[in-house]
Amino acid sequence: MKLKLLALACLATLAIAGCKPQPPAEPAAPAAAPAPAEVAAPAVADAPIEFSQKAFAGSFSGADTKLMLAADGSYQIAETHQGEKKGDGTWTAEENGKRVRLDPNSKSEEDRLYEIVGNDEIRLLGKDGQPAASGPSLKRDAAAK
Fold first, then answer.
1. Which of 2, 18, 51, 62 has its CA 20 to 30 A from that of 132?
2. pLDDT tens, 13-44?
3. For the range 101-110, what are the long-range contacts, defined as Cβ-Cβ under 8 Å and sequence gap of 24 or more?
4. CATH no. for 53-144
5. Where is this region: Disordered (predicted)?
């Protein structure tokens, strides 16, 4: 009989221990899902800023050159250093807004490259992509802002 009581006491102890409420476990944070702030910051820092052709379009001029970059990708240029010379064609941004290429409609003329110095200034580059010795920079006209 003592053996039965001892077995019953053990079972009761196990039953009570099994029913004892356990403290809630802290939910484990998934390792693959970082907090939203951690996701946004690196993505913004690493992502290049996109160049907006429409926003950059405008009128630029220098000592003897007047260049109009239209938002639709066309351009008109007038130069007076060797007499009155006009031209037109299309322009595109290269290297995500670091350079502008003028592609003239007249195929007897060569493409021109301009370095974008800032939102209000571009500088003529040579065929090799280096600043041209005789190419002054063109500044955005104040009325075109």
1. 51
2. 666 666 556 666 666 655 555 555 544 444 44
3. 102/67, 102/75, 102/77
4. 2.40.128.640
5. 80-108, 124-145
